[in-house]
Amino acid sequence: MRKELHIISDGKRDFPRLLRISEEMNEYAAAIHIREKEATAFQLYSIVKDMQARGIPLCKIYMNDRLDVAKVTGVHGVQLKHHSLPVEEVKRHFSSCRIGKSIHSLEEAKKAEQQGADYLLFGHIFATASKKGKKPVGLSGLESVAAAVEIPVIAIGGITIETVNDVIEAGADGIAVMSGIWDADNPVEAVRAYHNKLKL
């Protein structure tokens, strides 16, 4: 199975730049997650519509937590956080969506799979500025989760171009990247580099 590259917005870009770069990243991404914590429902709705207008298909657009916006826009994916509604309830009402669950332990992984999650977003694998003071789960933690569940495990957290191979060898079905892309001097070149690594 082809390894997936998930790009997660970081909430730090102005919307025109977010849209422009997302359009340029489109061909390399399996999923583009809209994770804009401070955005209003209408702003999130507008982002999805503008992405569509720029040629990004709904099948690649994932909404972080905001089920209301996901329902109205018809995006393909919904990413649930630890405090989101229960997976099984979301699955019941969003049967056509691919439902992902963010998890941080083996126990949470098994529970999310039992509840009907379609994939897991697991991390943080390595130390990262967005999780200061929190111990990473490491490659061993990733190996344990990947071996224990049948659904895809997408690794996240501090993954660099140099560590992609290690993460995949540990059992990940793909990677999710935020700062490694958005903080790069050239985000599109960074996406292309991650994409090429996953093709090897």
Automatic annotation (TrEMBL):
Coiled coil: none annotated. This is Thiazole tautomerase (Transcriptional regulator TenI). Its EC number is 5.3.99.10. Gene3D superfamilies: Aldolase class I. It holds the Pfam family TMP-TENI. It is an enzyme of class 5 (isomerase). It comes from the Bacteria. Pathway: Cofactor biosynthesis; thiamine diphosphate biosynthesis. GO terms for molecular function: isomerase activity. Keywords: Isomerase, Thiamine biosynthesis. It comes from Bacillus chungangensis. Residues 8-181 form the Thiamine phosphate synthase/TenI domain.
